[in-house]
Amino acid sequence: RGRGRARAGIGGHLTGGGAGGSARRRVGSARSASIWWPTVIVARTSSAAATAELARALSELARPADLVLLSGDLGAGKTTFTQGFGRGLGVSEQITSPTFTLVRSYRGRLGLHHLDVYRLGLEEVHDLGLNELLDEDAVTLIEWGDTIIPVVGPDRLEIRIRLGDGDDDRVIELEPTGRWALRERALRVAVAPWVDPEGASC
Questions:
Q1: Could you read off the pLDDT of 128-179 as tens digits, one per residue?
Q2: pLDDT above 80 (res 34)
Q3: 104: burial class by Cβ within 10 Å (0-12, 13-18, 19+)?
């Protein structure tokens, strides 16, 4: 009893047993059980400037109440990415890491709420008032966002930044779900300059 039951998540979405709404692909024949995989777009940059420029390109697709979850090791370039994203939104202020303030808000053509949840547990995340932030005329971008996936709904763009072979090389994975999945084609166009055409997405 109760297995597969959906529960309310941040932003009024459902998480848990529902079908979600993420961009998925079905593999297998009609005779076999269907398997669904989320879409992942893989891009590569070779400098901090390129990472910021990729983020700026993505910001052109942002809409009010969008949620972006950003993850990566320390020093991977999460704040650099956010700075580029903010510039694309028209933010003129210097964007700095909100590690100790938890939330920093900026104004541009859209607002930007920049959060860092590295030191927070799931219950503490609820206390930040994410529902209210997501209802505003702004984009919410959360560093270490992968740690709070259990309490957010499917309407999100997950961005994972991994270290590459060279000192400045980065591998950037984009996984759009929910409302972001409807922009998959536009996402592919936006990051095309940084995508290896040889099997760089799945």
A1: 667 777 777 899 999 998 988 888 889 999 999 999 999 999 999 999 999 9
A2: no
A3: middle
Q: Which two tokens stand for residue 39?
A: 């879409």
Is residue 195 over pLDDT 80? yes
Q: How many angstroms separate the Cα of 29 from the Cα of each of 26, 32, 34, 35, 37?
A: 9, 5, 8, 10, 15
Task: Report CA 178 to chain centroid distance, whole Å.
Answer: 12
Burial environment of residue 46 by CB neighbours within 10 A (0 to 12, 13 to 18, 19 or more)? middle
Neighbour tally for 146: CB within 10 Å: 15
Which structure tokens are listed for 58? 């993505």
Burial of 57 per CB tally in 10 Å (0-12, 13-18, 19+): buried
What's the confidence (pLDDT) of residue 159? 98
Token pair belonging to 181: 């999945």
| pTM of the entire predicted model | 0.78
Q: Secondary structure of 53-116 in the HEC alphabet?
A: HHHHHHHCCCCCCCEEEEEECCCCCHHHHHHHHHHHCCCCCCCCCCCCCCEEEECCCCEEEEEE
What's the mean pLDDT in 11-24?
41
